[in-house]
Amino acid sequence: MMVKRNSLIFLTAFGLLLTGCSKSGFEITKDDILEVARDDANATKSECENVSIKEQKGSYIVSFNTNGGSYEYKIGKDGIIKERSFKRGAKEETAETEKVEEPVKEEKSTTTKKEEEKSSTTSFDENQQQAINSALANSGLGQSDVSNITCSLDSNTNQYTVTFVLNDVTTTAVVDAATFTVISTILG
Q1: What share of the chain is helix, strand, coil (3-state, %, to 5)?
Q2: What's the maximum distance between 2 C-alpha atoms anywhere in the chain?
Q3: Which pTM value belongs to this model?
Q4: Is the dihedral angle over the CA atoms 44, 48, 51, 53 positive or is it negative?
Q5: What is the model's pLDDT at position 138?
């Protein structure tokens, strides 16, 4: 439990470092870009095979394979993930692609208020609660440690999106609805 909390602190600090770097015009290295992608995929260095990093029009394209499937990321030189895609192992032929866009700050505060209203009046079904438990356990947290918990199912990708707030930092986790395995976690 302590290791996961330390990891969360490290990831938060790393995110702040990347944010600071982007404001100063400093570009991070290819190793840093790979670390951002591996962290988002929740994969260790030893789990990644066929790693490829290519520079393309102000961004890096990072791809690698794990036992769970193959990942491809488009990451800006500032360390911000612009696009991600995940394809499960060869047995399944579903692919998921997600474009990541930074929300306008005004919209974010409106969304947060709506989420607070939803979380105070929404009860979760058994599967949603299991997805929430998986996301929190992946972060080394319990439900009493966080606030503003939301959970929604995307029936197209068969994934739950779980969001929660810890110390004024919103965390979004994507959880596979069939296995309740955390696919990715984004802080911020």
Answers
A1: 40, 35, 25
A2: 46
A3: 0.39
A4: negative
A5: 87
